[in-house]
Amino acid sequence: MNHLEHKSITILKEIILPGESKTINMEIATLHTMTKLKIPIIVERSKFSGPTILLSAGLHGDEINGIEIVRQIITRKINKPKTGTVICIPVINVFGFVNQTREFPDKRDLNRVFPGSKKGSLASRFAYYLLKEIMPHVDYAIDFHAGGSSRFNAPQIRIVPENQELKALSDIFQAPFGLYSKNIVGSFRNSCDKLGVKMLLFEGGKSININDEITQHGIDGTKRILKHFGMLNIKKTISIPEKETIYIEKSNWIRAKYSGMFHGFTIIGNYVEKGQLLATISDPYGKIEHKVKAPNSGYIINVNDAPIVYQGDAIYHISTVLET
Q1: Residue 193: partners with Cβ closer than 8 Å, 6 or more residues away
Q2: Which is it for the CA torsion 220, 226, 230, 234, positive or negative?
Q3: Residues forming a β-bridge with 250
Q4: CA 161, CA 31: separation in Å to the nearest integer?
Q5: Which conformational region is residue 255 in: left (phi greater than 0), alpha (psi within -120 to 50 degrees), or beta?
Q6: In 3D, which of 207, 218, 158, 188 has the Cα closest to residue 59?
Q7: Cα(24)–Cα(16) distance, rounded to whole angstroms?
Q8: pTM beyond 0.85
């Protein structure tokens, strides 16, 4: 999109002019009870030309912390730009949000069916209309996610390797960690990349949970991005973190070698030394206790908060190679 033209934009046959604010409800399908579910798309446009940025969350319906980030951005009026356009979709997967589940009612993961199909499954249709109606207007996007299955993610930005423009944007967002990860076929991020939309994927916290610290990281990073593009309202201030983003080129999952009660000793985001005690896994009868030690030195960027684990469960995500 050539934002310098700064003309009207049309989403689902609704016209939004420069300087206008409008909430557009996307209705693709109904529940089996014939109840309509509306997905609000909140559009805020400045009178002055500038980029269009999408802030989205709830692609997985149980990742509530991302939804909270976008909600607060709207509540605090951070989404009202000085220049350009900000589009907010706090909950993409309303079906999953209602049921507090990751998937759509058709049991499909929305983040694996892009670019979708006009006549495909329910999830596939949502993916299709998201790309057809919203993304042609978007220059940059921040998509907010959280860890799943009791696994708590340290606040991080994920970008593809060897993309200098995304790396520069990640530097501006300045999350505590940056993780290089390739695009996954069928993902929203992969489709955006093919459309030329520069997307930052934010990960932080865990599913079915709201964490104030994670929320603040997401809000602060978004404000820094808006400030960079001259879009942040002059009444809004930004904060600069004391530490620069730590970029992780490679990382591994530490998996439980035994089933049992899980007792973690490691704080998320900490640097640990090889051989350091991370956790113990014990039986409920006080007879057996297995130690979990760090296989290498590195940063812990994900921890399992579950009280009980099974053999093979992912319990820690640890960096193995840092960017120098």
Answers
A1: 160, 183, 199
A2: negative
A3: 321
A4: 40
A5: beta
A6: 188
A7: 10
A8: yes
Residue corresponding to tokens 């060897």: 162
Q: Are 96 and 31 in contact (CB under 8 A)?
A: no
Are the beta carbons of 40 and 74 closer than 8 angstroms?
Answer: no
> Whole-angstrom Cα distance, residue 154 to residue 72?
20
Q: Which region holds residue 86: left if phi is over 0, alpha if psi is between -120 and 50, else beta?
A: beta
246 has which bridge partners?
177
Helix axes 212-228, 64-75, angle to 10 degrees: 50
pLDDT per residue of the chain (324 residues) written in tens, 0 to 9:
445 457 899 999 999 999 999 999 998 777 777 777 789 999 999 999 999 999 999 999 999 999 999 999 999 999 999 999 999 999 999 989 988 999 988 888 999 999 999 988 888 989 999 999 999 999 999 999 999 888 999 999 999 999 999 999 999 999 999 999 999 999 999 999 999 999 999 999 999 999 999 999 999 999 999 999 999 999 999 999 999 999 999 999 999 999 999 999 999 999 999 999 999 999 999 999 999 999 999 999 999 999 999 999 999 999 999 998
* Contact (CB, 8 A) for 136 and 8: no
Torsions phi, psi for 162 (to 5 deg): 60, 35
Candidates 123, 74, 77; CA nearest to 103 is 123
**How open is the CA angle 36-39-42, to the nearest 5 degrees?**
145
Token duo for residue 20: 């206008």
Q: What secondary structure, in 3-state letters, does 166-182 show? A: HHHHHHHHCCCEEEECC
Cα(281)–Cα(263) distance, rounded to whole angstroms? 6
